[in-house]
Design brief:
By secondary structure, the chain is of the alpha+beta class. Helices cover 17% and strands 32% of the residues.
Length: 183
């Protein structure tokens, strides 16, 4: 289980590999101008965070070892500086992911969030690479959405690095439409 969590934290596994419900044929939202895209499209072609030799250090150390802390710090630096796929700038997309709430209105409706590719990211596990986190500002407040709820989110991506209390992001999205994920 520890290895699975470590691999999820590095973003190696896709959502479908870790959570089979995402592997089912989903009911894809049909939002004109916002085609369904996959998280892999947010990474530039050829970018492989595991090719960095510093990350290999993690496999060779035990918890509590000072080398583990150094390796984690090195990995965090690589992940926090993950490059954007320039081809995605200005693209309308629909992504499936999980909600990490950042801001709600006085009635508790969601206004701003991080969209992440797997359950627990940024909350129960270290954040994924910055190019696998989207900072979303919703056009309209969305009541009834809670942390780690799976959703479809449609909007226009821009490359705009931001640092939040929950993680560093490479992308922003103006969220036009949010709806619960249905497999």
């Amino acid at each position: 289980m520890e290895q699975l969590l470590a691999l999820c934290a590095t973003g190696i596994f896709t959502v479908a590999a870790v959570f089979p419900a995402f592997a089912e044929t989903p009911r894809l939202p049909q939002v004109e101008g916002f085609p369904v895209t996959h998280w892999d499209n947010l990474m530039p072609p050829g970018w492989d965070p595991l090719s960095e030799s510093k990350i290999d250090q993690l496999a060779a150390v035990q918890d509590g070892d000072p080398a583990a802390d150094r390796a984690m710090k090195d990995m965090r630096e690589i992940f926090d500086n993950a490059p954007a796929n320039l081809a995605m700038n200005g693209k309308g997309v629909t992504l499936a992911g999980y909600i990490v709430p950042l801001e709600r209105d006085a009635d508790g409706a969601l206004l701003e969030l991080l969209l992440v590719p797997y359950f627990g990211a940024c909350i129960h596990q270290p954040p994924p690479p910055a190019n696998q986190i989207v900072h979303v500002t919703l056009r309209e407040a969305a009541p009834g959405y809670r942390a780690m709820m799976p959703v479809w989110l449609s909007g226009t991506l821009s490359i705009d690095r931001s640092e939040t209390q929950m993680g560093v992001t490479t992308y922003r999205m103006s969220g036009e439409r949010i709806e619960p994920y249905k497999g």
